[in-house]
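Extended Data, panel c. Modelled sequence:
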Amino acid sequence: MFKQYLKLFIKKINKFVIPLIIYIVLFFIFSKNQQFNNISKINLKLVVNDLDNSKSSKKFIEKLKENNTVILKNLSLNEAKKQVFENKISAFIEIKKDLDENLKNKKAPINVISDEKNINFVYLELEINKYFAYKRTILQENKSDEKINEILKNETNIKFVDKNKDIKNSYKAPFLFASYMILLITLNTLISLQSSFKESTLKRIKISALSDTKFILQQNFSKIIISTFISLVFIIFLKIFFKNLNQTKFLLLSLSLILFSYTACSLSTFLTSITNDKKFLQNLSSIFTLLLGFISGVFIDKNYLPKIVVSISRFLPQVYINDFLEETTLSSFLFFAFMQMLFIVFFLSLSILIRRKKITS
């Protein structure tokens, strides 16, 4: 069985190579536009809601005004998200009440809504963190903050970003899009391979329900080898680009991509158990992956999606790799792995049930 799949995979290698080339081209186009070194300051349009209305909060607003357009306005969180998504504003900053006390007690002094893919705001965020770190030190030492803005202005500008440090936004988008491409390529490749088998070859599964189960297991072993190869190609490419990423973190990211390719395997088995119509299956997988990309936060940040859409996405596998990338820890990986195993068992169980029903009918 494996040899048959391998021969067909080599014959249909274009199903894998062409999307991979598209991914690499898009990757370099976007990474070129988001270089991580020596980014110049760009004037951002910020909406600020000052709940503290104190001397300290006003000084912070002065700091924001140095290189940005600041509008003092009270927006609801939903309206702020909408305006950020529509690019009407760069970010919404809410200064919490009791700013100084929050800083002293090491609590978050502000709430921020921004496009996390906006590299220019990330630069500003670094400067904000620097400002509050300096301000906290002043408060703890009971010193005057009269000249805080002057002091920070005269200091050397932050260089964005030190390549030896892990910045979440630098790897989240490439790995998320890689997971989507792995799903798309694996589905299309395996559906194409399965649909290419001769009807006479497939008829032998009708001997019994037990032989059908064995046949499905043999099929999936072959598919696992192919999907592992597909995901490893992406992993090698990402390793070359993110060579300074923490090794443990990269290992978890790599395992998540491989495991996600196995989910795609089980999904392809489920779809091909319904029908062997190649054209219909390929159209179905393309529509399914496209919808999955939109409702799971691949193309549109899930923070901007309606709650009902986010709730629906919880019944689909893609959203869980998005969640894992938000917080790349061992515990979040284990939860991601658990959810993917549930999807794999679910799709394979459905496949076996459908094939058994076809045999008995």
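The first strand starts at residue 45 and ends at 50. This feature is highlighted in the accompanying rendering.
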